[in-house]
Design goal:
Layout (H helix, E strand, L loop, with lengths): L1 E5 L3 H12 L3 E5 L15 E4 L7 H21 L4 E3 L2 E5 L4 H4 L2 H6 L5 E3 L1 H7 L10 E5 L3 E4 H14 L3 E3 L24 E4 L5 H4 L1 H4 L4 E10 L12 E5 L3 E5 L7 E5 L17 H14 L8 E11 L6 E5 L2 E8 L9 H12 L17
Parallel strand pairs: 1-2, 1-10, 2-9, 5-12, 10-17
Antiparallel strand pairs: 3-8, 4-8, 5-7, 6-7, 11-14, 11-15, 12-13, 13-14, 16-17
Helix pairs in contact: 1-6, 1-10, 2-10
C-alpha cells in the first residue's frame, strides 16, 4: 500500500515508522524538518508519566509507549528516555491521581503515596508546606523530544521510507494533494499529522476544533541539588498547574505553567518570552524551590499546544474523503504517547482496527 504521511513530529514520524516496518511504501513530509522548533514536538524534553485521571486509554497508551521508547532505545543505541521519577503535589483535590491508581495497578505501573516528612527527607529542595497529598512514580522520566523525532525519522528511512522536506498545499479538493511546488502526491492513503498547522489545512473541518496556544517555558541555572541525579520531575496541582524537569546535561532546570496562553500562529507568532511570564516563573521558583532564589534564567522558549475543545486527540478520517486521515490535537500531552498512537493509526489505516469513537470528529456534534 502506498501511503503519504504529512508531518514528522511525534505522531507523524511514529506512524510512518510503524507503517514502513509493516512493509508499506511510505513517504514522510515535513515543512521545516522533523522535530523543528516551530512544531509542537520541538524543544529538548517532554515528560512521560503514568497518572492520567480516570482515562484508561491514555494510561494504556502511555504504558505501551514507554515499552517502545525503552525497547527502541536499546535497539537503536540512541538515548530517547531518561528515567528520573516524578513527584505529584496536590494542594487541593487529588482526584486526578487517585482515579488513576486502579488502572495503573493493572499495568504494573508503580505509584507510591508519600507523607510530607518522607518527601522532605527525600527531596529537601522542594517546599511542600502547603501541599496536602503527594504521589511518586519512580519509573517516570523525560523524553529527548526533538532528538527523538529525528532518530525515528532516520530509522524510518533506514527501513526504506522516503523523507522529503517540503510544505504541502492546503487541499483544495480531497483528491488533490500537492507539495508547495505543485507536484501532486499519489498515494492510497494520506495521513495529516501537522499539529498547529492543521486548522489552516482543513479550516472547514478543524478551524474551530484546533486552537494553537502560546506557551512559555523557562530554564534556570541550577546547583547540583537540582540536577536529575538529585531530584525528580514534578507536577504541582494548585490554583495554577505548574510542572518541570530537573537540570541535565542537555539543559537547565525547566519550569512551565500549563495555563493555556493566547491563540498563536506557529509561522508568524512572537516567540520572544514575555517579562510578565519571566517574573511569574521566578516568583514561583522562589516559592516552591527556595534555593533557586536569585538564580538566573539561562534560557526561555515559546512553543505551542494545539488544543481541542475537550483536550483529547483527534484521530479520524476526513468526512469528505475516506483515504484522508486527520491525526492531531496533542493538547500539550500527546508527545509521550507517540509510539502507541503511531501504532494505533497504522492499524486503523490498514483496516486492522476500527476508529475509536472517543477520538472521532463526530464527538463534537453532540
Amino acid at each position: 500500500m502506498k501511503i503519504a504521511v504529512i508531518g514528522a513530529g511525534a505522531f507523524g514520524s511514529w506512524t510512518a515508522f510503524h507503517l514502513q516496518s509493516k512493509g508499506h511504501d511510505v513517504t514522510l513530509y515535513d515543512r521545516h524538518g522533523s522535530g523543528n522548533p516551530k512544531s509542537s514536538s520541538g524543544g529538548e524534553s517532554r515528560m512521560i508519566r503514568g497518572i492520567y485521571g480516570n482515562n484508561q486509554q491514555y494510561i494504556e497508551w502511555t504504558t505501551r509507549s514507554l515499552e517502545l521508547w525503552k525497547s527502541y532505545q536499546l535497539e537503536w543505541e540512541e538515548e530517547l528516555f531518561v528515567k528520573t521519577g516524578i513527584l505529584w503535589m496536590f494542594s487541593q483535590a487529588d482526584d486526578f491521581a487517585r482515579n488513576s491508581l486502579t488502572f495503573l495497578e493493572q499495568v504494573n505501573w508503580t505509584v507510591d503515596e508519600l507523607t510530607k516528612n518522607e518527601t522532605k527527607n527525600r527531596f529537601s529542595q522542594i517546599n511542600v508546606s502547603d501541599i496536602h497529598t503527594l504521589f511518586y512514580e519512580p519509573d517516570a522520566g523525560f523524553l529527548r523530544a526533538n532528538h527523538a523525532c529525528k532518530v525515528v525519522t532516520d530509522q524510518f528511512q533506514k527501513l526504506g521510507g522516503i523523507y522529503i522536506e517540503k510544505s504541502i498545499n492546503r487541499p483544495v479538493e480531497p483528491s488533490c494533494i500537492e507539495t508547495e511546488d505543485g507536484t501532486q502526491i499519489e498515494a492510497d492513503h494520506y495521513i495529516f499529522a501537522c499539529g498547529p498547522w492543521m486548522k489552516n489545512l482543513f479550516p472547514e473541518k478543524l478551524g474551530n476544533k484546533i486552537n494553537p496556544t502560546r506557551q512559555e517555558v523557562f530554564f534556570f541555572d541550577t546547583p547540583q541539588q537540582f540536577q536529575m541525579d538529585s531530584m525528580p520531575m514534578w507536577a504541582d496541582f494548585g490554583d495554577v498547574f505548574h510542572y518541570g524537569i530537573p537540570g541535565s546535561k542537555y539543559h537547565g532546570f525547566k519550569i512551565a505553567n500549563d495555563t493555556r496562553g493566547e491563540s498563536f500562529d506557529p509561522e508568524t507568532g512572537n516567540r520572544e518570552p514575555s517579562e510578565k511570564g519571566r517574573k511569574k516563573a521566578m516568583d514561583y521558583a522562589t516559592y516552591r524551590f527556595p534555593e533557586l532564589a536569585g538564580r538566573k534564567i539561562t534560557d526561555a522558549r515559546v512553543c505551542q499546544y494545539e488544543d481541542t475543545p475537550d483536550e483529547h486527540f483527534i484521530i479520524d478520517r476526513n468526512p469528505d474523503a475516506d483515504n484522508i486521515w486527520l491525526v492531531c490535537g496533542g493538547s500539550g500531552h500527546g508527545f509521550k504517547m507517540g509510539p502507541a498512537i503511531g501504532e494505533a493509526v497504522a492499524q486503523m489505516v490498514t483496516g486492522q482496527n476500527p476508529i475509536n469513537p472517543f477520538f472521532a470528529l463526530s464527538r463534537f456534534d453532540s
